[in-house]
């Protein structure tokens, strides 16, 4: 009877381990896609013909360089973590699973902290974006730089707005979102649109960060269960 119960428990653990292995493989596949996407986005922002002009704007050079570097480094780390996780799951490698679990724990903490900070500092972030937009808009009125025009188009299409309020210069209208003639006369000002966007979406941003952290937590639990299930194979005596 005891032998039967131990066999049932062993088969149950094996089934749980196999399920955890499948979850980890799927998670790391998606994780690798996201990491690759972040690296590709960072490289496109830095070297794309449409975005190369961002780095010619003196005001934003440092900010864009930092942002692009964060995208590339974060995406690269996610790719490395996904490879380590898949190696541990597919090959039953305890060392790889241990490293993966440690890195994933750090990433979960960062994800939760980033979500809380994004929620608490949403007003500050929106204020910085408003100031950045107003500065670029004022400079563009004097310089009409193609790089600044690209930046204005990015803001206008993202927040569906145009201008800082009041009448809009004719050459600025070329950067506004495509719309009918009447709609062009009723564009909301970008400072107001940016503030409204962050006020309305701050809770959603927090939920997105926490939801992502929850998915990572499931992967961490599966990694720990699979790691623990490998212990008997190293410490159990041989069967004669």
Give me some keywords for this one.
81% helix; 0% strand; disordered N terminus; disordered C terminus
Query: What fraction of the residues are assigned to beta strands by DSSP?
Result: under 5%
Question: What does the average pLDDT come to?
Answer: 77
Instruction: Tell me the series of helices and strands, N- to C-terminal.
Output: HHHHHHHHH
End-to-end gap: 20 Å
Number of helical segments? 9
Uncertain runs with pLDDT below 50, 5 residues or more?
1-13, 232-240
Fraction of residues in helices? Answer: over 70%
Overall geometry: elongated
Largest sheet: none
Total number of beta strands = 0
Would you tell me the structural class of the helices and strands?
Answer: mainly alpha
Which value, in Å, is the CA radius of gyration? 25 Å
Overview of this protein structure:
This protein has 240 residues and is mainly alpha-helical. The protein has helices at 2-47, 61-91, 94-120, 122-143, 146-159, 170-173, 181-185, 190-229, 231-235. It starts with a helix and ends in a 5-residue tail after the last helix.
């Amino acid at each position: 009877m005891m032998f039967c119960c131990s066999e049932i428990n062993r088969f149950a653990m094996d089934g749980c381990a196999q399920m955890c292995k499948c979850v980890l493989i799927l998670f790391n596949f998606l994780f690798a896609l996201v990491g690759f996407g972040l690296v590709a986005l960072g490289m496109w922002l830095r070297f794309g013909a449409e975005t190369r002009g961002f780095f010619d704007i003196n005001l934003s050079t440092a900010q864009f360089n930092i942002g692009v570097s964060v995208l590339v480094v974060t995406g690269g780390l996610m790719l490395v973590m996904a490879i380590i996780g898949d190696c541990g799951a597919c090959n039953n490698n305890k060392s790889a699973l241990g490293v993966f679990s440690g890195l994933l724990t750090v990433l979960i903490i960062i994800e939760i902290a980033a979500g809380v900070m994004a929620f608490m500092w949403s007003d500050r972030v929106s204020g910085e974006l408003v100031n950045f937009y107003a500065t670029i808009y004022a400079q563009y009125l004097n310089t009409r730089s193609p790089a600044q025009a690209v930046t204005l188009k990015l803001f206008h299409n993202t927040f569906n707005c145009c201008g800082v309020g009041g009448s809009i210069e004719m050459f600025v209208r070329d950067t506004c979102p495509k719309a009918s003639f009447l709609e062009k006369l009723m564009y909301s000002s970008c400072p107001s649109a940016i503030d409204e966007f962050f006020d309305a979406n701050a809770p959603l941003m927090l939920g997105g960060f926490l939801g992502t952290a929850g998915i990572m937590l499931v992967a961490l639990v599966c990694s720990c269960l699979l790691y623990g299930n490998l212990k008997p194979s190293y410490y159990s005596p041989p069967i004669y």
